[in-house]
Amino acid sequence: MTEPVRVGLLGIGTVGSGTYRVLERNRAEIARRAGRRIEIAWVCARDRERARGIVGPGVPVVDDAVGAVADPATEIVVEAIGGTGIAKDAVIAAIEHGKHVVTANKALLALHGNEIFAAASARGVMIAFEAAVAGCIPTIKVLREGLVANRIEWIAGIVNGTSNFILSEMRAKGLPFAEVLAEAQRLGYAEADPTFDVEGIDAAHKMSLLAAIGFGIPVQFTRAHVEGITGITDKDVSYAEKLGYRIKLLGIARRTPEGIELRVHPTLIPATRLIANVEGPTNAILIKGDAAGVTLYQGAGAGSEPTASAVIADIVDVTRLMRAEPQERVPHLAFQADALSDIPILPMADVETSYYLRVRVKDQVGVLADLARALADAGISIDSMLQQGAGDDENETDIVILTHQTRERNFDAAIARVVELPSVSGDYTRIRREDLL
Amino acid sequence: MTEPVRVGLLGIGTVGSGTYRVLERNRAEIARRAGRRIEIAWVCARDRERARGIVGPGVPVVDDAVGAVADPATEIVVEAIGGTGIAKDAVIAAIEHGKHVVTANKALLALHGNEIFAAASARGVMIAFEAAVAGCIPTIKVLREGLVANRIEWIAGIVNGTSNFILSEMRAKGLPFAEVLAEAQRLGYAEADPTFDVEGIDAAHKMSLLAAIGFGIPVQFTRAHVEGITGITDKDVSYAEKLGYRIKLLGIARRTPEGIELRVHPTLIPATRLIANVEGPTNAILIKGDAAGVTLYQGAGAGSEPTASAVIADIVDVTRLMRAEPQERVPHLAFQADALSDIPILPMADVETSYYLRVRVKDQVGVLADLARALADAGISIDSMLQQGAGDDENETDIVILTHQTRERNFDAAIARVVELPSVSGDYTRIRREDLL
């Protein structure tokens, strides 16, 4: 067996420590596959004391990330710091020093991926980022390599475990959002500041990477439409269920003749679909290719060892190909850098989908006719309807309407008229609906 | 862009024609990714007339497979003939001529894989076989590369679409096996001679490949335990459902301290598991790794274009790595050839699992006590029980027992006693049960 490959580990938190632990535990099994041992050359951590408690005595612990990546003997740098501050400086420095980089940092790549990939290609090094999307599920590999024959039509995924845990619990226990969020925080499924997760930002980071890889376009996080789950009530969860649907925070990237849809929002999915039944803090991705049809990938989307599984897969891939010619490697964004497309991201107003609309109305004659008229005038036809006399005020009632497909701008126009109707109390919820066929 | 890679296509049936069609249709998209065009250099078919009707006028059509693979300009041979006759001769000949081989032929690799992989490695060529297992789902890639960090604990899969279609229909419509099989044959989901599919042989071919890759052992199809679904009655399907289970033809490969379990048989799976809800002619694979936990992969397991999707993914992989050094390629069986393990396949009698047991008994006092005694004497404890007075004969009844885990040899011993009980009519069914956690 040849010399071990020398890997530097930036950060020894959840991802870093998992990577260290799995590499130690499965050292022999991994070497039997890779044909080469993987050696942690050093660990870089702000809190060196804490790091010393995790790594073995033979492993140097340093605290200067940008300095550490300059080590001439290091061949691969694993960035497990997170965020876009030091992590970015360290990754850029690593590239400048000719190191290959493995990262789990979706925020970094969603915001600075184009710059980082360009710098890496210019320097002839690889940036591997399987762990940045959907934890242990080899989504990047599947999309870049496994489905390479396909014209990708769409990608739809539950890519934020925290939100999926919250929505699953809301349905299972009939509890409101705030209560379940507090439970998720107690259980460690949600952070103290849950904004990135529950507002859809984390999901949009990941979807902007998947869209780039799926369609051969630059990473365009800032053009994504992003809505979270904070406005979803237990009432909506229950109405959706009565209509045969589940509400999931779904990331969608879809190719249309006019442009690429790139959107994250709560979505009604028919309860009969497998992905509608993915519960708890897990992830699942559907990919529709013209040849393969729809395939589903499901597993742990976060966590120390699941993420480590993806990080180490990247380390082994990079190890195999570090001496290879550039054309022997898979391009960062699946497509050759000179073959990226400038097909635009579609503004949300131009997106076609169908809707769940719940409006609170006065329980009086003619309300439904007014509502139906407002929708019909905007060219929107109704698929099905549910009227529910629930609530504190017996003079009010909820009307839930599932529409057929329409453009978002039409639906917005209809809503503007609906809220002006004298019989409508003004309180409404709209949730997009997807068939995923 | 460099010269196109020249691919020879052996066979232009379902898989071959799909490969040809998808390569034509997605020519530009694939080249944008691969960085190189893929050109079908020739097609080999027994019926040249028919082949001419499928391929373009510029593509030579020949009919001598072994002769065709000698073409000096051909770099990759796609074997889409099937079976172990001409296909084997052609693959061996292709290797001898230094061609890389892409094949969808699970029977060939299950029976002759060790010989073929050894010959390929000696000659420095790649054998790629993503399409041999689970159609378009990139299972081989996921297991060999995506989960490379993991010690694989088990693999469990619905890897035969025909059987899954039949079992799904039996449950949905309450119909007996024979009737649904006839329907499947009408719909083209089952062949005129369905033996390979419904007797579990095809599934066992695939599982023996997955076991090899998952555990780093040689391909050992002949040691697999193989049972099909022909003995499953609509009654069992219905009882299983009442107990909260679905019956699936499951392939299982599991690592135990004493050896590797390698078995294909009908299996009760809790109805709450996602994989229990995979319906129709699709495939789904669960993989449990020590770091990743359980991940699920689902999609079309057969069909012209889904299989082509996998074939072309292999062509692109091989194209990328054809000039690479051997150590830059992923080993055929995931593990380095000199690092394969000789851990044995466990005889079925030594396998531990739990059971569904249905026995037909005389409806008389003491029957249940006798049954429970026979099981207890073999050290088998009962998990739950269902007694059903159904059937034509009102003096007989079905008793269904779910046992806790035991060794198969214990269960066999118990069954031998059960059938001798005076109150038992002798008609019984046993189906293994797995939790897949």
Going by CATH, the architecture of the largest domain in chain A would be 3-Layer(aba) Sandwich
Structurally, how many domains make up the residues of chain A? 3
The largest sheet of chain A is: 11 strands, mixed
Number of helices of chain A: 15
CATH class of the largest domain in chain A: Alpha Beta
Would you mind describing this structure in some detail?
The structure is a homodimer of 437-residue chains. The first copy, chain A, contains 15 helices and 17 strands. Helix content of chain A is 37%, strand content 26%. The longest helix of chain A is centred in the first third of the chain and has 18 residues, at 106-123. Chain A folds into three domains: 5-135 and 304-339, NAD(P)-binding Rossmann-like Domain (Rossmann fold), CATH 3.40.50.720; 139-300, Dihydrodipicolinate Reductase, domain 2, CATH 3.30.360; 353-433, ACT domain (Alpha-Beta Plaits), CATH 3.30.70.260. The termini of chain A are far apart. In chain A, helix 8 packs across helix 9 (177-187). Chain A is an alpha/beta fold.
